[in-house]
User: Which sequence fits this backbone?
């Protein structure tokens, strides 16, 4: 066998680089398909040194380092995409020395170079996303198999406590997996939806279409379908405070004092054409149709509030909205006309009728995180309206007269959310409590203490009141009034893109009918669960 002498410089050729790229791609395909049983050494020549393990391929134990090594090699190879032949500075210098009659042709060639470069980058992006999805799937499988192994160990040793891996401890900065005691978890995590750049401030779910809508501090509204972002609506210029599906429309409200009603069927017209190659740069006018402005998809815009719209509800052709301008307004959804405006100032002007501490409230438009406000929450049904305000009071109104016929005081700070059925009302507040009220008696049935602001409450309909709450921590809090059972479920089951260590703090929760629960956190992550 001929061997290369030690003093001879290794050959460097296009063929060698191409062979190395081919081998890296081939090895990584084996790594991700068969459990990362081979270690790739980085160097001038890739070599396979380790023999495949004899343990079953489905067993994840001991394979994580090799898996990550292979993934890193994959990234290094893919990110070596051939760039432009000239930098922007070199091209400008060359262009200054080019005859004027040749400049147009040179610019067109340069445009084609950029088009090809964009296609290459898009191809790299798709490959990287695909690999990330595979890694996420393998980690979730590993969590389940690790839990099964430890349950067997516990059975053998006669111990009843399992330890479990929490993938939420894996972040962009750290690849460590930390073991923690097992905590209650919901039945199934269906989707982890990442796309928002800041905290979630509003959620809604349409059980018929399966669509999920989310609003955020980043002023965006996103509509999700089966784990994929279907629409991105940039129709507001301030914090989004509410989203709601209504027939074929989606209503959104914001701190910019507007409520907008979007026709979801028209939003398809501003999405990319599915038949076109997604790698084709959108600057080529010959293959892209004219895109209508987003405003053409807006059926109605409800204006009139003098400050942030902090809450709203649409039902049976009627829209009710609450605002930092200390009014509640009733609108006709069909015509867009204002029916009446109720001034809440008079109802809160008597300090003897409120228990809210001096200075403990919030600004009329709410906190910087999009919680509470002068009118922090509302809900109506036919002529009955319930409001929660910054003085901590729950008030019941008659929409026919515009008068409050009952006031109930229990919170010491601003109300952030509320929901009622025919017997009960649940309210959450910045004072760290959630109160379950008896509508008939007008008194508190149960007070739940959390020690941190309760930012979202949901009343799930059933034989007995069943509440879900978000309380400024990483748990999904559940309470049943019939058994007085209170359980905190972990929301960090599954991989999170943990942003600055705060991604797991739940800010919004949605759960009404059916077995679907939606949660959103201050890291911008939305999750759908089966309960």
Assistant:
């Amino acid at each position: 066998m001929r061997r290369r002498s030690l003093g001879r410089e290794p050959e460097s050729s296009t063929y060698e680089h191409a062979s190395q790229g081919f081998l890296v791609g081939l090895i990584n395909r084996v790594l991700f398909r068969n459990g990362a049983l081979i270690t790739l050494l980085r160097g001038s020549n890739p070599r396979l040194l380790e023999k495949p393990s004899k343990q079953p391929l489905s067993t994840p134990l001991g394979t994580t380092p090799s898996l990550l090594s292979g993934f890193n090699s994959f990234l290094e190879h893919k990110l070596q995409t051939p760039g432009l032949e000239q930098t922007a500075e070199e091209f400008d210098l060359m262009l200054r020395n080019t005859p004027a009659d040749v400049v147009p042709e040179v610019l067109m060639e340069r445009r084609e170079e950029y088009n090809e470069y964009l296609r290459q980058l898009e191809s790299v992006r798709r490959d990287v996303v695909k690999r990330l999805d595979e890694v996420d799937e393998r980690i979730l499988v590993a969590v389940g198999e690790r839990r099964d192994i430890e349950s067997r160990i516990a059975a053998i040793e006669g111990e009843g406590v399992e330890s479990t891996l929490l993938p939420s401890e894996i972040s962009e900065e750290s690849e460590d997996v930390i073991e923690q005691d097992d905590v209650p978890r919901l039945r199934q995590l269906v989707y982890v939806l990442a796309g928002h750049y800041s905290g979630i401030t509003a959620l809604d779910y349409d059980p018929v279409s399966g669509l999920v809508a989310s609003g955020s501090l980043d002023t965006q509204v996103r509509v999700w379908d089966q784990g994929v972002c279907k629409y991105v609506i940039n129709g507001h210029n301030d914090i989004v405070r509410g989203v709601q599906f209504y027939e074929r429309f989606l209503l959104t409200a914001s701190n910019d004092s507007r409520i907008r009603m979007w026709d979801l069927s028209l939003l398809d017209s501003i999405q990319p054409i599915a038949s076109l190659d997604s790698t084709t740069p959108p600057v080529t006018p010959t293959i892209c149709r004219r895109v209508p402005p987003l405003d053409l998809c807006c059926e109605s815009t409800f204006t009139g509030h003098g400050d942030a719209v902090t809450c709203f509800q649409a039902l049976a052709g009627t829209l009710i909205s609450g605002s930092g301008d200390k009014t509640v307004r009733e609108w006709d959804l069909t015509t867009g006309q204002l029916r009446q405006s109720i001034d809440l100032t008079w109802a809160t002007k008597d300090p003897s009728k409120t228990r809210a501490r001096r200075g403990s409230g919030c600004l009329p438009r709410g906190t910087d995180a999009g919680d509470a406000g002068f009118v922090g929450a509302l809900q109506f049904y036919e002529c009955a309206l319930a409001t929660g305000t910054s003085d901590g009071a729950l008030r019941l109104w008659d929409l026919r007269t515009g008068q409050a016929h009952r006031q109930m005081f229990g919170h010491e700070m601003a109300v952030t959310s509320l929901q009622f059925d025919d017997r009960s009302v649940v309210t959450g507040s910045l004072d760290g409590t959630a109160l379950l009220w008896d509508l008939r008696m007008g008194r508190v049935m149960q007070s739940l203490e959390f020690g941190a602001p309760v930012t979202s409450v949901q009343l799930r309909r059933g034989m007995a009141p069943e509440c879900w709450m978000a309380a400024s921590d990483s748990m999904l809090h559940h309470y049943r009034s019939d058994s007085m059972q209170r359980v905190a479920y972990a929301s960090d089951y599954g991989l999170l893109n943990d942003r600055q260590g705060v991604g797991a703090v739940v800010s919004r929760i949605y759960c009404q009918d059916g077995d679907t629960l939606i949660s959103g956190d201050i890291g911008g992550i939305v999750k759908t669960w089966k309960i």
User: Anything to note?
Assistant: Residues 41 and 454 are 52 Å apart (CA to CA). The chain is about 20% helix and 35% strand.
